[in-house]
Automatic annotation (TrEMBL):
Pyridine nucleotide-disulphide oxidoreductase dimerisation domain span: 237-339
Organismal lineage: unclassified sequences, metagenomes, ecological metagenomes
Record keyword Flavoprotein present: yes
Organism: marine sediment metagenome
Gene Ontology MF term list: oxidoreductase activity
Keyword Flavoprotein: yes
Keywords assigned: FAD, Flavoprotein
Occurrences of domain FAD/NAD(P)-binding (ranges): 2-216
UniProt name for this protein: FAD/NAD(P)-binding domain-containing protein
Length: 346
């Protein structure tokens, strides 16, 4: 017998208050940005704007049915669904709102919460979940921290007519990504009205009137059922910041590869003038592919540009399977497509 307990509606972060609703909002941004890039090239974007209320209703059209669908799917497969906060009362027992339950095995998948901050007025801030539920947008939004969420939401807000500011206490935001491509993203962000302020910390706030979870879950479930201790294989797993355009990476950073002792062939390409980007009017795009000179295998790939969140998956597969750059380059893609650019990036 299997049971699941959650104090929140069934569906989890990604489907209800993370990746999925965020990308639905991003679709509105894509339309506006695409039209503006084509101004003077056959498209007149004047008057085009995001209707935030309608866009949020479109988001809820996806998120609202999720809990019921998820719970019906679980119960249909014999899983008992519990609602409430769980508390362990013994080695093999726990309580859910006072009701006791006993099991041989427990899988704790509690997720994460925003990092607490201690400055005065921190209680006046909202988190990413609250942002995704804003019925109206203010004229200005301050995003604290130079990570994924700040950049993605700032790009959404900017195209919706808001003045977004990102403050980061470090010198370089998005530190897990290639620094050269991050700087390109920062310049592109500034062009659409995102104001980044580096090495800045908040002292106080005053009121005014004015994706690894699925892989880890599968491994954990397998370990429980088969009584084994396998760890997840994280090699070749790509990640992306869904700004417009997106920034994506897989494998090692250039500095990491060199520190690990690899003789690295750094293949950097500015793709801003390539057909796939010229076609849509985008001029800010680039790729950096890291190849080991000793065996030709791909060590890492870093992409910044339209649809590169899809293109990065080819590099992820290559790293996972230990393919050489020559082997990946031999793939024949549909032409003309962004995928057909792959061979020229290597």
């Amino acid at each position: 017998r299997v049971a699941i307990v959650d104090a929140l509606p069934y569906g989890g972060t990604c489907a209800l208050r993370g990746c999925d609703p965020k990308k639905i909002l991003r679709r509105g941004v894509e339309i506006v940005d695409a039209a503006r890039l084509m101004e003077g090239k056959g498209i007149d974007p004047s008057g085009l704007k995001i209707n935030w209320s309608d866009l949020m209703a479109h988001k809820r059209g996806f998120t609202d049915p999720v809990p019921d669908k998820m719970e019906k799917g679980l119960t249909g497969n014999g899983v008992e669904t519990l609602h409430g906060a769980a508390r362990f009362t013994g080695t093999n027992t726990l309580e859910v709102d006072g009701q006791p339950y006993q099991s041989k095995r427990f899988l704790i998948a509690a997720g994460a919460i925003p990092r607490p901050v201690s400055f005065t007025g921190a209680d006046l801030m909202i988190d990413s979940t609250d942002f995704l539920n804003l019925e109206t947008l203010p004229k200005r939004i301050l995003f604290v921290g130079g990570g994924f969420v700040s950049f993605e939401f700032a790009h959404i807000a900017a195209r919706a007519g808001v003045k977004p500011i990102i403050i980061d206490r470090g010198a370089r935001p998005l530190s897990a990504f290639d620094p050269d491509l991050v700087e390109m993203l920062i310049a592109r962000s500034a062009a659409v009205g995102v104001d980044l302020r580096r090495e800045t910390e908040i002292v106080s706030i005053t009121a005014s009137d004015v994706g690894f979870a699925v892989i880890e879950g599968k491994v954990a479930a397998s370990n429980m059922l088969k009584e084994q201790k396998i760890v997840p294989d994280y090699s070749g797993i790509p990640t992306a910041v869904f700004t417009v355009p997106e920034l994506a990476r897989v494998g090692m950073l250039e500095a990491e590869a060199k520190e690990a002792g690899h003789d690295v062939d750094v293949r950097f390409t500015d793709t801003g003038g390539w057909y796939s980007n010229y076609r849509i009017g985008e001029t800010s795009a680039a790729a950096k592919v890291l190849v080991d000179k000793s065996d030709g295998k791909i060590l890492g790939a870093h992409l910044f540009g339209p649809e590169y969140g899809e293109l990065i998956n080819f590099f992820g597969l290559a790293i996972k399977m230990g393919l050489t750059a020559k082997q990946l380059k031999s793939m024949t893609a549909v032409y003309p497509s962004v995928g057909s650019d792959l061979g020229s990036l290597i």
